[in-house]
Write a structure and sequence with these properties.
The complex is a heterodimer of chains A (223) and B (129).
Chain A: H1 8-32, H2 34-93, H3 95-100, H4 103-128, H5 131-159, H6 166-186, H7 211-220
Helix pairs in contact in A: 2-4, 2-5, 5-6
Chain B: E1 8-11, H1 15-27, E2 33-36, H2 39-46, E3 53-56, H3 65-73, E4 83-87, H4 92-100, E5 105-108, H5 113-128
Parallel strand pairs in B: 1-2, 1-3, 3-4, 4-5
The chains are: A mainly alpha (223), B alpha/beta (129).
Chain lengths: 223, 129
């Protein structure tokens, strides 16, 4: 065994000391009421995780919708472009036949239909941008959770600091607190009881998941 | 009044959503629309603004959509205005509250062009009777 290594006896004594200190810290936190604050702060983390998953899912779905819409619109435009080239060639070769055979009218009809399909795709692409509103509301909630967690941890740090160190610690955390407050204000953090988007409807009977359920609910109440 | 002349006020704190609603309204024939970023700004625009229809979000800073709805219904000049809520709030109690406070319709986000068109038309049909 190396001379620098702890002996087994010293090892045990160290663990006992660490255990005792942990117990003292726990008791002190409980006496000061911080165990509940910490519990509530930690309890908010799964909520933040599920909100972040929702943001990830929604942004992914929106990107897919936009890319699919772009692919289909480009296909329509490519068909129009090659159709126009063929039509121009037919008109140059034999204009009378191109008109008389109905080729020209048929092509013009296809142009109209294709433009309508492209317009519908562009509307879908526009609607897919609603993710900005939906995820924005959820991001505000996550920022509020982080803000609350940070405030509680900073307060714990200040209150558990020895008196002669308080001024130094407060001076260190003051800019952090100021920045957190500024971010909170910029993000429009509010503490009202509105829920915002439902990030997971699993096991919930108090929420609707689509427009048909809204209509049925209102109809059942006579509205 | 023709659709083109009807004046809409779109209220939402997200400019992207205001733009989406405005574009869809234009596509379905209602090209005359203004925007407000929250209930407070909406109320000051509505006063003397000759609006015919309000499309409002609920979760907004300063004054939320519920407070805006209640203010509209309590105001002699504005109380007859159709107010369509377009919101991510999906709790049944919020939907019922909106109806009890006088909302003319309720759409949950995300929504489709067909849904917005159907609800606006339904409200206008009901108003015309």
């Amino acid at each position: 065994m190396s001379g620098q290594a702890l002996t087994m006896k010293e090892d045990d004594a160290l663990y006992v000391n660490v255990g005792r200190l942990t117990r003292q810290l726990h008791d002190a936190l409980r006496e000061l009421g911080y165990d509940r604050d910490l519990e509530s702060a930690v309890g908010s983390l799964p909520d933040a995780r599920s909100r972040l998953s929702y943001i990830s899912r929604l942004t992914g779905e929106a990107a897919e919708k936009v890319l699919n819409g772009v692919d289909e619109t480009k296909l329509e435009l490519a068909k129009l472009s090659s159709g126009a080239i063929e039509m121009a060639a037919a008109l140059r070769k034999d204009p009378v036949s191109a008109v008389a055979s109905g080729k020209l009218m048929c092509f013009l009809g296809e142009v109209g239909q294709s433009a309508s399909r492209a317009d519908a795709q562009l509307t879908d692409i526009m609607l897919a941008q609603d993710f900005h509103d939906l995820t924005g509301q959820v991001i505000r909630k996550v920022v509020a959770l982080a803000h609350s967690l940070e405030t509680q941890l900073v307060q714990l740090l200040i209150d558990s600091t020895p008196h002669d160190e308080t001024d130094r610690v407060e001076a260190t955390v003051a800019p952090v607190q100021a920045q957190a407050t500024a971010v909170g204000a910029a993000e429009g953090i509010r503490t009202d009881d509105l829920d915002g988007p439902v990030v997971s409807a699993d096991g919930r009977s108090d929420v609707v998941t689509d427009q048909a359920q809204v209509d049925n609910l209102l109809e059942s109440l006579g509205f | 009044m023709s659709n083109e002349n009807m004046k809409f006020l779109i209220v939402d704190d997200f400019s992207t959503m205001r733009r989406i609603v405005r574009n869809i309204l234009k596509e379905i024939g209602f090209g005359n629309a203004e925007e407000a970023e929250d209930g407070q700004a909406a109320l000051s625009k509505l006063k003397g603004g000759n609006f015919n229809f309000v499309v409002s979000d609920i979760n907004m800073p300063n004054m939320n959509g519920f407070e805006l709805l209640k203010s509209i219904r309590a105001d002699d000049e504005l109380k007859g205005l159709p107010v369509l809520m377009v919101t991510a709030e999906a709790r049944k109690e919020d939907i019922v509250s909106a109806a009890q406070w006088g909302a003319s319709g309720y759409i949950v986000k995300p929504f489709t062009k067909a849904t917005l068109e159907e609800k606006v038309q339904k409200i206008l049909d009901k108003q015309a009777k």
